[in-house]
Amino acid sequence: MSIRVRTVRNTEELARAMGAIGHYFGWIPTAEQGESFLSYLPLDRMHAAFDDGRIIGGAGVYPFELTVPGGPLRCAGVTIVGVQPTHRRRGVLRRMMTAQLADVRERGEPIAALWASEDTIYGRYGYGMASQCVDITLPRDSAELRPGLPPREGQVRLVDHDEAMREFPRVYERLRRRSTGFVLRTRDWWSKRNLDDTAEWRRGNAGPLNRALLELDGGPAGYALYRVAQHQTEFKRSLRVIEAQGIDARATREIWRFLLAIDWMDEIEARLLPVDHPLWQLVARPRFLGMKVHDGLWVRPIDIGAALSARAYARDGRVTLEIVSDPLFEENVGVWTIADGVARRARRRPDVRLDVQALGSVYLGGFSFAELARAERVEEAARGGLARADDLFRTDAAPWCPEIF
Ligand SMILES: CC(C)(COP(=O)(O)OP(=O)(O)OC[C@H]1O[C@@H](n2cnc3c(N)ncnc32)[C@H](O)[C@@H]1OP(=O)(O)O)[C@@H](O)C(=O)NCCC(=O)NCCS
Question: 3-109 has which fold?
């Protein structure tokens, strides 16, 4: 078997490369569907693996921004990764990941991020689990807000696709710039992904997409996207919250007040919430949230100097990290000192030792150095080193990526 890996050259090849992961969803993408991805997945960001001229694997990148502590940063959003079952475990994924990450580095994108289909796959390429997310299932009869909150404020309206296209992106954009984990959504991204209700598979046995706009003080302040699912076998209805955002604490309270109070539902489901979502404090009975925690974003520092210099730190100060290994980029290995917000190679004695995966885990502030040390992923190399590192890397909110890309 001689496998060749290169980027695709036309929409037909793009569709066939997407078909490798499509196989596992029961989806054979057409050239037209390939074309509709082009505005956020350029041809030269989709690698394909060829066996004797036939495409048997694919791995793509959305070249977008991910908000890191301090603001948005260029990021390779890795996606649509698959190898046909006829070619599994012969090193095809490894070949594609190696080519893709070399290309990301050449383009100067300081980090890559992805959602992992399986948590066992990506560590070997230098990705570390960087955030956690929570799914909830709350029985409607335990879904009261806590007593003592202010009475209802503002108003919620159900809006059509066009009005949602005008208002929701503006609310999201205000949040994005200050919310670690949010990704850049272009207008195309919004219309083809977040607000699209034409694709049957998006419905997942539920009804049409509802778009609720919250207005406070005469202006848009939040939104919710949700569907109602009537269970097939039981006389039971679920409210499936796809995304709910408020620009501040008041707006968050009011959009959730609306969602939790929709009549005749048996339960409210929401996915991909951050571990510190205000809902835990807003509801009267947090025990009934039925939380399930799982891994969220995985982050891969590509160019450690650039990545560390691009994020903001909780305070002035200095910390020295020794990166002991990187499975792909030897250039990242060595001692780095962060001082005045800039990372430079150094000869100092390190405060902590870690590999590039562990650096990915602490990069967004989703895990602390101390937490990683307790699991033997980070080693304290000088007394007080963990505390010095955590003092700088600490963030005031858990990273939150509200959608799987
Ligand atoms: C996951 C998938 C892409 C792996 O492709 P592959 O070509 O079989 O992988 P490779 O042969 O290159 O294996 C690379 C390494 O990953 C390991 N690996 C691959 N798939 C794995 C899995 N599902 N779980 C754990 N390890 C896995 C291999 O053992 C190998 O390890 P090594 O380098 O230490 O020897 C492929 O099985 C697939 O398409 N699965 C279904 C779709 C999917 O999950 N895609 C990922 C979307 S995020």
Answer: Aminopeptidase (3.40.630)
